[in-house]
Every structure is written in C-alpha cells, then in structure tokens.
Amino acid sequence: FYCLTTEELSMTEFQEKLRQQHEESLHRELEALLSTADHADAQSSRKDFQGFQKLFHRFLQVKGPSVEWSKINRPPEQSVQPYEKIKAKGLPADISTCLSKLAVVKLNGGLGTSMGCKGPKSLISVRNENTFLDLTVQQIEHLNKTFNTDVPLVLMNSFNTDDDTKKILQKYKHHRVNIHTFNQSRYPRINKESLLPIAKNMAVNGENAEAWYPPGHGDIYSSFSNSGLLDKLITEGKEYIFVSNIDNLGATVDLFILHHLMSQPADKRCEFIMEVTDKTRADVKGGTLIQYDDHLRLLEIAQVPKAHVDEFKSVTKFKIFNTNNLWISLPAIRRLQDKNALDMEIIVNPKTLKGGLNVIQLETAVGAAIKSFSNAMGVNVPRSRFLPVKTSSDLLLVMSNLYSLDAGSLTMSKRREFPTTPHVKLGSSFTKVQEFLSRFDNIPDMLELDHLTVSGDVTFGKNVSLKGTVIIIANHGDRIDIPAGAMLENKIVSGNLRILDH
C-alpha cells in the first residue's frame, strides 16, 4: 500500500481548502445575486443555481481529461444495431397504441446569431416560407391525423428564445398538436481567473446581457423534472420521449424504432436509444459511442486528450457519430433524477466576451447520460435522419430540388441518382441568411451536383444548373455573376464576370 508524503499531504490539504474557498465564495455571490430578483424569479433562479453549484462542485473535483485513452474500446456488435435489422421486424397492427405512449421533445434553446439572424433559430425560414418550427408542427400534426393519436410536442426553450417562441405558438392553436414548453436553466458565466460570476444582478439585458448562458442540452433532465412536465407526461401514460435538435430536419418520428422499444420484454426494457450514423469527412468532430468500463458511453471531442485528437477524428477507428436523435424512457429519467444518479461529463467551454474578458461556461450533453440508463443501445440509422442546418451551406442544400417536402418532412428527391449529399462550401459573403438570399435569384438545380465551392462576391441568376464538381472563386475586388440559365458541369470559374443591365 502507498503512503502520501508530508509534502503531498499538505498539497492535497491546500487544494481541498482552496476548493472549499471557491465554493463558499461562489455561494455568497449567488445569494447576493438572488437578493436582487423579485419573488417569482428568485424561486426558479434558486433551483437553477442549485444545479449550477452541483456542476461547479464537480468541475472543481475533476482534473485533466475525463477518459483514460487506453480503456476505450469499440462498442460490442450487439450494442449498436443496424437500422435495417430493426426495420425488418415490421410494424404492429396497432401502431397508434405505441404512439399514445410517446412525446416529442425538440431542443429549442439556440439563437440564429451564427447565421446572422436575431431571435430563436427555429424561426428562420428554411423551405417555402416554412420555419424549422412550422415543419416540426406539420410533421407531428400529420402523424396525429394519420394514426388518430395525440403525440404532444414539447419545446425546451432557453431564456434567450422563450418569449419569441411563445408569441409564435399562438398561430398553431388550431393545429392538431398539443404544444408544451419548459425552460432550460439559466447559469452564470464565471470569470476564468476568479471563478466567480460576472453578473452584477439578475437582469438579462444591458451590461448583464453576456453574464448568463443556457448550459447545454444535458440540462434537459433536471429542468424537465423541475418544470413539472416530466411528471405530467408520466401521469398521462407517456413512456418515452424522442429528443432531437430543432434544426435537424431529418429527425422525424421513426415508427420502427418506436416499435422496437415497445416490443422489449418488461425486464429487458431498453431505456435509451442513441441514433448514430456513419461518419464522413464532414463529421470528424461529432461525438461517438464507445465501450468504457462495461458501459456504452458518449465520447465528445472536448474530452479527448490533445495527443489523441487526430485518432478521434479518423474515420477508420471511430466509424459512427451521434446524431443527437435520442429515445429515452420517462420513468427511467424520473428514477435517475430522484436518486441524483445522472452522471454527465462536464464540458468546459471557454469564451472571450466583447470587452476581452475571459469566461468559462460549464455545460453537459444530453447524450452523455447514456451510461446511466439500463439496456442502452445505439441504432445505426441512414444518413437521411441527420440533416442539420447549422450554416448557409446546409441551408442551400435543404432549399434546393435535392429534397422534396411532404407533410413537414424532407426526403431526398427520387430523381437524384445516388443517395449521398453534395459537399457544399460557401464563403464568408454567404454567412448571413439575408446576404445569402440576396445572392440567388432562385436556388440552382443541384440534382447532379457532387461538390460546390463558392468564394468571394458571387451572384446566381435564375434557373442555373450545377453538376459534378463546380468551383467559383471571385478574387478580392472582383465580382462574378453567373448568368440566368447557365449550366456548369465540372467547371472552375474564376476572375471577373460582370453582367450589367443594358
């Protein structure tokens, strides 16, 4: 056995005292902040702060990467099933009984700032004037009408998106879908040096606008529970939630996966399914499923020791990544919440604010809880279930004729010869949605496109058609106008091409 030296002991004691000091200082600061809130706000904020203090306590305990690289194994065959195998089971005659036990949860906490839009990202128009939220409501309404059922839609908002989203929800009053909302927590950003909150009071605007953040989607378990919605859905007989990002247009309710969950024997009930899909070069940063200490576990790039980042990104060792489409048992969430047994790795997200102040955000990921659930598994789904719109390059794809829209669902056009999505890279002149839209008279025909790169000041006339590999580069100070009706197949266009009205 091993004895600590006096020096090591005093070092450990010192660190322990320092930890206690940090926690006490944080507690004092949070109490001072709460004293500036009105009664109603103080109650919900106190719950948020308790969650934050737990996270902060764990953040101080954990040093270094949260995984030992040598312990990482590929998940065993049976723990990640191919979708085809699950689909082969077929569907029961009474699929509506399965649906009556389901609720759909969309993660709706994000803003559209990275695409140059104000307000919630879910309110950006993505297809025929329909927003992400419109398409989601249409999908679920179609499901409820087709199977004469009542699948509710639950939106997890953040303090950034709640007001704007609630205003918009009025317009769905006459749709056949019950919509519930709850708010994820509001956590304080902390100064990287002092580890104390930078907020002066509980306001979320003015000088305090940058002082708060929604703490990642791993917060869903506690905020769902705190809101009372978890218990309400369980009382209504719901057994599973299907959780996904609202900007993933491929995340529709899959009846085969739902049936698979419902058809498990009671003692072998699968409490968590993570949909994964095969990695391509574009997905090297996506989290992956691993086997670790006899559990399935989500490994995110933020947890990988620097020396192994290239290995993590390789498509050969880690072949799949997490789509963040998750099927989770409601009674299991209740049980784990009651026991305080949900253990999610902390993601430390450093930010530099406008004035140059360095802060950190402590976050968790919803999929990281997989290791706490019984009989958890992955299902390797087709790429079509992962269609996120994070950038204007993604937006171009979903607005184009590559996809057909039916009852709120986008599917790859039957007229495309091969099922892979073209690789599109649009330069910085296309980053903001408004500017992006102003550069296209209409969206080009992309049915036969493999690869598109556009850089610089480029505009597209009406009815342009792009095929194969097309690269268009306008050098600094030059402008390229692709004329109406142009057909570019395996072409590189560079230099200056101005088309002026006569």
Automatic annotation (TrEMBL):
<feature type="binding site">
    <location>
        <position position="216"/>
    </location>
    <ligand>
        <name>UTP</name>
    </ligand>
</feature>
<dbReference type="GO" id="GO:0006011">
    <property type="term" value="P:UDP-alpha-D-glucose metabolic process"/>
</dbReference>
<dbReference type="InterPro" id="IPR002618">
    <property type="entry name" value="UDPGP_fam"/>
</dbReference>
<dbReference type="InterPro" id="IPR016267">
    <property type="entry name" value="UDPGP_trans"/>
</dbReference>
<dbReference type="InterPro" id="IPR029044">
    <property type="entry name" value="Nucleotide-diphossugar_trans"/>
</dbReference>
<comment type="pathway">
    <text>Glycan biosynthesis; glycogen biosynthesis.</text>
</comment>
<feature type="binding site">
    <location>
        <position position="217"/>
    </location>
    <ligand>
        <name>substrate</name>
    </ligand>
</feature>
<dbReference type="GO" id="GO:0005978">
    <property type="term" value="P:glycogen biosynthetic process"/>
</dbReference>
<comment type="similarity">
    <text>Belongs to the UDPGP type 1 family.</text>
</comment>
<comment type="subunit">
    <text>Homooctamer.</text>
</comment>
<dbReference type="GO" id="GO:0003983">
    <property type="term" value="F:UTP:glucose-1-phosphate uridylyltransferase activity"/>
</dbReference>
<feature type="binding site">
    <location>
        <position position="390"/>
    </location>
    <ligand>
        <name>UTP</name>
    </ligand>
</feature>
<keyword id="KW-0548">Nucleotidyltransferase</keyword>
<feature type="binding site">
    <location>
        <position position="121"/>
    </location>
    <ligand>
        <name>UTP</name>
    </ligand>
</feature>
<dbReference type="Pfam" id="PF01704">
    <property type="entry name" value="UDPGP"/>
</dbReference>
<comment type="function">
    <text>UTP--glucose-1-phosphate uridylyltransferase catalyzing the conversion of glucose-1-phosphate into UDP-glucose, a crucial precursor for the production of glycogen.</text>
</comment>
<feature type="binding site">
    <location>
        <position position="184"/>
    </location>
    <ligand>
        <name>UTP</name>
    </ligand>
</feature>
<protein>
    <recommendedName>
        <fullName>UTP--glucose-1-phosphate uridylyltransferase</fullName>
        <ecNumber>2.7.7.9</ecNumber>
    </recommendedName>
</protein>
<keyword id="KW-0808">Transferase</keyword>
<feature type="binding site">
    <location>
        <position position="247"/>
    </location>
    <ligand>
        <name>UTP</name>
    </ligand>
</feature>
